[in-house]
Predict the structure of Elongation factor Ts.
Amino acid sequence: MAAITAALIKQVREETGAGMLDVKKALTEAEGDVARAKEIIRAKGIQAAGKREGRKAQEGTIASAVVDTETGQAAYAVELNSETDFVAKTPKFVEFAQSILEDAIKADATDAQSVLAAPAEGGTVREAVEEAASLFGEHVKIGRVAKVEGPRVEIYAHRKSVEMPPSIVAIIATDEAGSAVAHDAALQISAMSPRWLTREDVDSDVLESERRVAMEKTSDELKAKGKPEAVIEKIAPKIVEGRLNAFYKENVLLDQSYVKDPSKTVGDLFTEAGGKALSFARLEVGKSEDE
């Protein structure tokens, strides 16, 4: 019987695309015979994980939790994707997502790569995810990952329906006073999808692009109305600033109209509470940056 080495397992995995546990079992049954192991894998109908890679995994869930730290609190969130909502809502899939979250917290992982590299039972999270593809019969992958820290941290997890696990998770870090309105702010983040906390946080290249587009649009509109160049040069900047303000109100959390009372902004909400919002994150199933 040939020794079942890591190199042998790797070879069969690369040639079949099957998961590690399936390969180990097949090699053990085949007493180390690679050709026979490959026959066993085919005979058992073990679908190659590699063949699933091309299939979109845009369903799933987001597992999240708040933990206490030496300086306050930290919230972690991990998106686990599947191909169908049928798999996403099964207890085993939800439990698997929770186990990955726990591994991420132990490793203090802050992105998908560090989660995949984190230790898990019997290996790494990456290996566990690969095995999960065989277990669930679908392409399974880690999506977005977030860690938010502050004196106080609030999480709101939104479900599309009662039978489905959370598909949107909003996290916000605040100071102590701001925690009084943190839940309302998390609801706002979930519903309105802000991209930045403050105007100063907006990426400079994004802002410049918005300004150029606003200027071109404004100039074209004024020219279409027959305004002379001298008038356009005088009034266009004010119109452009108005359009940028509208951009801020749509995309900047503290500038957004508060959904429960549009007469005030989210910034007003924190001012009234005497507190501050420090940072936030929003994860939504199927909206990963690499999709």
